[in-house]
Every structure is written in structure tokens, then in C-alpha cells.
Amino acid sequence: MYILAFETSCDDTSVALFEDDKLVAMDTASQIKIHEETWWVVPEVAAREHANNIFKVLDNVLVFSWIKLNQVNHIAVTITPGLVPSLLTWITVAKTISKTLQIPLVEINHIEAHIFSNYIDRKDNNIAYPLTCLTVSWWHNEIYLMKDMFDFKKIWWTQDDSAWEAFDKVAKMMWLGYPGGPIISDLAEKYKTINAWKSKKLFPRSWLVKEELNFSFSWLKSSVKREIEKRVESKWELTQQDKQEISFEFQEAVCEVLSTKLVNSADIYNVNTIMLAWWVSANDRLKEYIEELIKWKDIKFIYPVKKVYSMDNAAMVGINAYYKIKKKIKG
Prior knowledge:
Nucleotidyltransferase, domain 5, globular
């Protein structure tokens, strides 16, 4: 069974081809350079770039895999959530191919697909249920309880900003560039190697009610803004040392809250497996923090086997579609 998967929920044009649960080929066209000018994704610009890249990326996957379009058995496409102009680009193409070849169209939820990125290059029987999964993207910051592969329940979520949005906004405050997550993490790593490992706790931890698992990062962003303004006022500009220190202290504050609440969810919901999904699962410091917290606990920690699977990609759409087809899940 061949599955051709499309992902264009935001600013990455991605196509993947699966043979059952095996990823045969994937190609992704990034728009980061274009959106650096606006420090965020402009939906109309993203949709135009998808239209420009769409057939080139599709052709690359078919050529690399040595599979012809008429050999494909299923089409899978992200339909929600995401930027509507971007989503419509591939939905239109997917429906056209599905109708032309008279093959089934599998509609995929973007959040669910990111959770399923943990199943790529991993056997499904290696993941034990029930489990709790932390998802963090620019908009979303949530913890899900999974009693089975397709039994999702959102149990806690952000009350304002997501952690990843905070990374981007802090990077913007210091004029570091876009996207902010990798830049902040790189500066934090440089600070860590030069200076003492332990955080000074320069910024507050936004616990809300610590026994609960909701999130809030607006307080943290405000605290970082005040610290930047204080340093600029005294020195007229931020030094590279300032940028590294602020990045390190900010990342420590975010990772401590995310990791503590995820690990606490295992105790509250009596599970032995915790999982990361979406962009934050590529953050090495967060994974280190979680591993430190569970060192003496009987908890299994799962995250995507490759960092590329943490980003928006068609492989997660394809693997999600494979299990929906296998288990006859509709909708």
C-alpha cells in the first residue's frame, strides 16, 4: 500500500511517500528566508509560495522513490488547524488527484499528526498506553491524555501564550532573527559552555497553581522585556554576553515549567509513559530537563527519533494516515 501525504498548514511545503508504515521519500520546501523579513508568516505570502513549490516538491518525491502517481493507493492531507490559505493549496491538489485517480482521500488533523510523529521509524508496540503527551507549537501548548492510539483527551493547556511563541517574541525583543527557537537555544548553549551551568533564576517560573498543569508564559515575556530595557538603559545596547545570558535564563525558565508539568502529569494520571510532540520536541535542553526529572522514576520518555519530525512535515501526515487506514478510523 502506497500513501502519498501532503502537509501545508503553515509555511513548509512538504510531501512524503509511504509504503505501509515505512517512509520511502520526503521533500520539504522551507519559506523561512522569505518570512524573515516580516518576523512571522504572512498567510497570503505563504499560500503563494506553496503554489510555486507544490509540483516541484511532489515531483522530487516521485522521482526519488521511483513510484508513479498511478501506483499510489491513498492520498493523505492536512485539513485543520492551520493558515487557511496555506491549507487550501494542498487540499485542492489532494482532492483533484484523489478524484482523478479514484483513490481514497484521508483527512488529517495537524495536531494529531504531530503526536503521530513519534510513530515514524518506531514500531507502535513500543509505545505503551495510557500516556500523557505535551504538544507545543506557535499557537498550541497542551497536554493530552492518550488511553489508546486514537483516544485523545486534551486535559491542560496554555492560558495565554505558548512556550514557542514566547521563544519567537523574546528573539524579536533582542533583534535576533526568525524563527526564534533555534537562535535562542544556540545562544543559551554558548552561554552554558562558558559560564556556570546552574541558572541564577533571573526570570520567574510561571507555575500558576503548581498542582495543576495549565500554562502561562505572558508573565515570563514581560519579565524578559523589563530585563532587556534595564540593560539597554544602562549600557545603550545589549552586548553579546547579555543576549547569551538572557537566552539561557529564559530557556531555563521555560524548560523547568514544561518539564515539571509534563512529569507531574504522569503522577496525576497514573501513567508510566510521557511523550513530546511538535516543535518543542526538538529542544535538547527540554529533553535533558525531563530526563533529569525522571532519572529515579519508572517512567518511559518518548520523542520523535529525528528532529526533522518535530517540524511541520508530511511524514507525520503519512504515518497518521497509515494507522487510520489500518485501524479503519474515519474522520
